[in-house]
Amino acid sequence: MTALLRLEDVSLGYRGRPVLEHVSFGVEGGEFAALLGPNGAGKTTLFRGMLGLIPVFTGRVEYGFNRRTQPPGYVPQKESLDPIFPLTAYEVVLMGAAARVPPFWPVGRHQRRLATDCLARVGLADAAEQPFWALSGGQKQRALIARALAVQPQLLLLDEPTAGVDPGAEAAIIDAIARLNRDEGLTVIIVSHHMRLVREVVRSVIWVEAGAATKGTTAEMLSSERLVEAFGAGATRPL
Amino acid sequence: MLSADFLLRNALIGSVVVGLVCPLVGVYFVLRRMIFLGVALPQLSAAGVAFAFLLKSMAGAHQHGEAAERALALVGSLGFAFVGLVVLAALERRGRETLEARIGIAYAFAAAASILFVSADPYGEAEMTHLLRGDIVTTTPSSLRLLVGVLGAVALVLLALRKELLLVSFDRDMAVVLGKRAALWDTLLYLLIGVTISFGVMTAGPLVTFGFLVVPPLAARLMTRHMLAFSIVAAVFGAVTAFAGFFVAYRFDLPLGPTDVALASTGLVVVVALRGLVGVARVGRIRR
């Protein structure tokens, strides 16, 4: 398999101060990986570095696809968006569908159909005309996943998609993402601190801690010994 | 008032055009939560006009005719508005102070600079009174053509590029991930804001410009659920208010600027009250 995303000896941080150094790993096509680690370890820094939202100090981030013609799908935390914007769920998804429409060109029928299809894929067809901010936390997150899918990406990156949603919605979101990976072969990287939820579905884990990031299989990276080492004796209890 | 022989026809059309286009720009002030920039930038633009007149006085030129005077004022107004926007954007990138602090400082500086420039200019007070009060009544056919042409172009660009401007305003990170040059789109938006404010200040004065930038979008926000409807309702609200304000000011011999702002604010209060009543009625229906 070919790597869809490869980091080679990458250092990342803010204002010239590195948070993570000498990070090297690759994510293969069709892989479902979780980005895990203690709070403040640098998960968000690595996530933003992979998306190209912060510059790398040293090393290289390489994509196995043309980022310009086929950008990655990005799902932010819903709290990062401002509720002042008067947008329906459909209009939010249309932003993704219109990603490749050049400036001055109107959004066409093809993009509108794509937005409608993507809403249906995440089970929100009936909520299309609902104001985005009137949706429940879980529905908002699924609308943002639909927006990312509307970009028609090969790689989907999600920033804590289950944060601030009720347990039923958490399971539905993880299930929807797992289905996209399993049935459509979409490569997925998910940031989470919900280990119990993601360990059942992901095949690999990128563990971020103490200024470094290491990648391995879920069994290796989430072994009891490793969790005790990271979080102390209570960590082996279901999280 | 709508007849071709109406003496103040140019002023009426100019007023409605400012009322129509300022809210289209103001929509982004409201959505980006930078409403107070709407008061700081017109003030900076006014300081630019005062500075241009001061330079003209210092150079010893006083009789250049109305067109040259307007052109000079426009250069000063645009220059100060753009420099202000660039400085505010640069400070935003550094991100050390809050947005309110940056805008507050810009406003205080602009207000003080306007007074100082006018007091240092022996001819300043008379010239500035004309321009800063937004002497729309003196709008000539040529200045009206320029106003309609420039603000019309601003409205068309805002409409044609609304998907890009919306994406960058709503989710900047997503825009960057999709390969959009967010800083470039911000610059374009600031350019459109600067041009609109400069022409608004030159035509109607800083008070009316601020009023039309902010009040119609705030009212429209309460009435709409879609982005396009938000922009259209804000623009229509501004244009209707400008027309009604002109009528009331003409009929009752009132100053136009304050009449426009008072009418727009009354309209906003009515919308808030109606929305409250609709909310109460809805709750009552649900309880029954």
Describe the structure.
The complex is a heterodimer of chains A (239) and B (288). Chain A is α/β, with parallel strands linked by helices and 239 residues long. Chain A contains eight helices and nine strands. Chain A has helices at 43-51, 89-97, 109-121, 137-149, 167-184, 195-199, 218-221, 224-231; strands spanning 3-14, 17-28, 32-36, 58-63, 73-75, 155-159, 187-191, 204-209, 212-217. In chain A, the strands form two sheets. A six-stranded mixed beta sheet of chain A has the order 5-6-7-3-8-9, with helices on both faces. Chain B is built from twelve helices and no strands. In chain B, helix 2 runs antiparallel to helix 5 (124-132) and helix 9 (182-204) crosses helix 10 (206-223). The longest helix of chain B is centred in the last third of the chain and has 32 residues, at 256-287. Chain B is globular and about 75 Å long. Chains A and B meet through helix 2 of A and helix 7, helix 8 and helix 11 of B.
Topology:
The complex is a heterodimer of chains A (239) and B (288).
Chain A: E1 3-14, E2 17-28, E3 32-36, H1 43-51, E4 58-63, E5 73-75, H2 89-97, H3 109-121, H4 137-149, E6 155-159, H5 167-184, E7 187-191, H6 195-199, E8 204-209, E9 212-217, H7 218-221, H8 224-231
Parallel strand pairs in A: 3-7, 3-8, 5-6, 6-7
Antiparallel strand pairs in A: 1-2, 1-4, 8-9
Chain B: H1 9-31, H2 37-58, H3 65-94, H4 99-120, H5 124-132, H6 141-160, H7 162-170, H8 172-177, H9 182-204, H10 206-223, H11 227-252, H12 256-287
Helix pairs in contact in B: 1-6, 1-9, 1-10, 1-11, 2-3, 2-4, 2-5, 2-9, 2-10, 3-4, 3-9, 6-9, 7-9, 9-10, 10-11, 10-12, 11-12
